[in-house]
Amino acid sequence: MSPRSMSVPASRGSPTPSASASLTRVGRRGGSSRPNVSLGVIPLGPRTRAGVENFYVYDQNLVRIQLLSGRFTVNAPGDVAEYLAAFAELSELAVVGDEARALIRDAIG
C-alpha cells in the first residue's frame, strides 16, 4: 500500500542548506522516477487551508498524520474524509512538470 503524501510548509523563508540540496535533487530529476508517484508544488499565495502537519493517505480507510507533537493514525470514516478533501483541495493548487521545476529552481536561488 503506497501512501499519497501531502506536506505543507510551515514558513515562507529561504530553504535550509539540507532543504536546498533536496530541492536540487528533485528539480534535477523532475520529480520522481517512479511511474506511480507524481510531484506537485504548491506555489506561495493565499490558500483556503493552512497547517503544519504532514499527512499520508493510504486509502479510503487510513490516514497517518505527523504533527509537531507526535504521529497519529486516523481511520474513522468522517476523519479520513476530511483528509481526502484536504488532499484534493491542495492537489488542485499544485503545479506539476515544467512549472513545478521552475518553482523549485526559484526556491534554490
**What share of the residues lie within helices?**
25-40%
Task: Please give the number of β-strands.
Answer: 4
The strand order across the widest sheet is 1-2-3-4
What summary fits the major beta sheet?
Answer: 4 strands, antiparallel
Radius of gyration: 15 Å
Q: Which regions have little confidence, pLDDT < 50, spanning 5+ residues?
A: none
Strand fraction equals 15-25%
Number of helices: 3
SSE order, one letter for each helix or strand: EHEEEHH
The SS-based structural class is alpha+beta
Mean pLDDT: 77
Return the domain count: 1
Query: What gross morphology would you assign?
Result: globular
Terminal residue distance: 36 Å
